[in-house]
Amino acid sequence: MPTIKILPHSEYCPQGAEITAPAGTSICEAMLENHINIEHACEMSCACTTCHVIVRKGIESLNEAEEGEEDLLDRAWGLEPQSRLSCQAILAQTDLTVEIPKYSINHAKENH
């Protein structure tokens, strides 16, 4: 199973973390299953940008972003070339390093 190294984030993962998840799992699902409660206001339906992450290592192993995801990412805070919506980025067999941006465009937390 691939390992996902999550860089420290003051709210969701203050100490950082290393988690594992089976190939075929989205980054968002893997984080939620490991008690890293990243925002996902649209319930992982690719309709918002609250689960935006930056894949610092291993992005080439993920599935290709589809047009709908790319269109949404244009609205994400802190967009970078390695940005993905974690609900759409599906794990392969390669380890990843992921950063959760400091901010999102979500003005009200959904308390998931």
From TrEMBL:
<dbReference type="InterPro" id="IPR018298">
    <property type="entry name" value="Adrenodoxin_Fe-S_BS"/>
</dbReference>
<dbReference type="InterPro" id="IPR001041">
    <property type="entry name" value="2Fe-2S_ferredoxin-type"/>
</dbReference>
<keyword id="KW-0001">2Fe-2S</keyword>
<keyword id="KW-0813">Transport</keyword>
<keyword id="KW-0249">Electron transport</keyword>
<dbReference type="InterPro" id="IPR012675">
    <property type="entry name" value="Beta-grasp_dom_sf"/>
</dbReference>
<keyword id="KW-0411">Iron-sulfur</keyword>
<protein>
    <recommendedName>
        <fullName>2Fe-2S ferredoxin</fullName>
    </recommendedName>
</protein>
<feature type="domain" description="2Fe-2S ferredoxin-type">
    <location>
        <begin position="2"/>
        <end position="104"/>
    </location>
</feature>
<keyword id="KW-0408">Iron</keyword>
<dbReference type="InterPro" id="IPR001055">
    <property type="entry name" value="Adrenodoxin-like"/>
</dbReference>
<keyword id="KW-0479">Metal-binding</keyword>
<dbReference type="InterPro" id="IPR011536">
    <property type="entry name" value="Fdx_isc"/>
</dbReference>
<dbReference type="Pfam" id="PF00111">
    <property type="entry name" value="Fer2"/>
</dbReference>
<comment type="similarity">
    <text>Belongs to the adrenodoxin/putidaredoxin family.</text>
</comment>
<dbReference type="InterPro" id="IPR036010">
    <property type="entry name" value="2Fe-2S_ferredoxin-like_sf"/>
</dbReference>
